[in-house]
Design goal:
about 375 residues; alpha/beta; TIM Barrel; eight-stranded parallel beta sheet; three-stranded antiparallel beta sheet; 12 helices; 13 strands; about 35% helix; globular; binds N-carbamoyl-L-aspartate
């Protein structure tokens, strides 16, 4: 229950985004500034075309991201203060796991210092997942053993892909048929259950977040703003709503409530991952629309709103743990120095933002007014 004394200012350590799609080329140039401004670091997903499967490709991609930040700063569209923020942005790179990834690729990734994780896309589960894995323990045991030995995290898109499993049940089915066997075979593997969407996933991560001999967490989960704010009715409100379509798909209200409980719990295994996934407007508003919500520019306000909806902003502790503290602890990185301030200053999300084609891109909550906005970044 929200108390009558509603806070007006939130001061937090600078946040990170632990699950982000930045794309490449011109698309990258359009979206990178929003993240560089609002987050100090981001785990950058490797589902490009072709996917980022080697350390060499990841390093080259990292260079293109930093060059795109630089180009945005040189464009004259951002103030000097904003550019000073943007130039602090660090992309944390991820390799795309395939059935052919060799174990020594993990050695190269560790040595690089720039690759922070390996991503499992079950083949066919989501955007650009065709090169993903069809039989995890059958195809990838050697590479998983090396990751476990070296402490390289596995980031998991947790959905089964069998046609007979209902799309709304695919995450819960994954826990039983993949996650549990994986963690029982590799009990010391560091795992992030990405963009969780169900009560079953929230409970699994709450109850089974084991720790290593040094007391460090071996299991965590990211949660998106859309899964905290919406249930599956949002997909059908007055007609088909393609901009609310992402994978894993929005679920029933009971699941949203379980995610809110997990995110606001302060438990260290839950942290911010927007899964901001840009697709041009005409590719979403199409007869076969792409999956993904574009949330990066307004993500912090959206999360604040989700926390406030259950009275979880009375102190900033749980909010800051989720946005800025739990992620670095899991990834064994320092909390960002400095501070961000959010205020109760209304901000209207534009109907459209510029993107690679004239159709533009539609951000999550386009045309609506948010309660919270970022008012200072230091
Ligand atoms: N979330 C999505 O719906 N889409 C993501 C892929 C993913 O993370 O599943 C994308 O790359 O577009």
């Amino acid at each position: 229950m929200a108390s009558s004394i509603a806070p007006t200012t939130l001061t937090i350590a600078p946040p990170d985004d632990w699950h982000l799609h930045l794309r490449d080329g011109e698309a990258l140039e359009h979206v990178v500034a929003a993240t560089a401004l609002n987050f100090r670091r981001a785990i950058v997903m490797p589902n490009l075309k072709p996917p980022v499967t080697t350390t060499e490709q990841a390093l080259a991609y990292r260079g293109r991201i930093l060059a795109a930040v630089d180009k945005a700063c040189m464009s004259g569209r951002y103030s000097e203060a904003d550019c000073a923020q943007m130039r602090q942005f660090q992309p944390l790179m991820v390799l795309y796991l395939t059935g052919a990834t060799p174990a020594d690729e993990i050695d190269r990734a560790m040595v690089s210092g720039a690759v922070h994780a390996v991503k499992l896309y079950p083949a066919g589960a989501t955007t650009n997942s065709d090169a993903g894995v069809s039989d995890l323990l059958g195809q990838c045991s050697a590479v998983l053993a090396r990751m476990q030995a070296l402490g390289m995290p596995l980031l998991v898109h947790g959905e089964v892909t069998e046609a007979h499993v209902d799309v709304f049940d695919r995450e819960a089915a994954f826990i039983e048929s993949v996650m549990k066997p994986l963690r029982s075979r590799f009990p010391s593997l560091r795992v992030v259950f990405e963009h969780i969407t169900t009560r079953q996933a929230a409970e699994y991560v709450t109850d089974h977040a084991t720790r290593d001999a040094q007391g460090r967490l071996l299991l965590a989960a990211t949660i998106t703003p859309q899964h905290l704010l919406y249930n599956r009715n949002a997909l059908f409100r007055g007609g088909l709503q393609p901009h609310w379509y992402c994978l894993p798909i929005l679920k029933r209200e009971e699941h949203r409530l379980a995610l809110i409980k997990a995110a606001t719990s302060g438990l260290p295994q839950f942290f911010l991952g927007t899964d901001s996934a840009p697709h041009a407007r005409h590719l979403k508003e199409a007869s076969c629309g792409c999956a993904g919500c574009y949330s990066a520019p307004y993500a912090l306000g959206l999360y604040a709103e989700a926390f406030e909806s259950v009275g979880a902003l009375q102190t900033t502790d749980a909010f800051e743990a989720f946005t800025s503290r739990n992620g670095p602890a899991f990834y064994r990185l320092p909390v960002n120095p400095g501070r961000f301030e959010l205020r109760r200053v209304p901000e209207t999300v534009p109907e459209r933002l510029p993107f690679v084609t004239d159709s533009g891109i539609v951000p999550l909550r386009a045309g609506e007014t948010l309660t919270w906005s970022v008012t200072a970044r230091e």
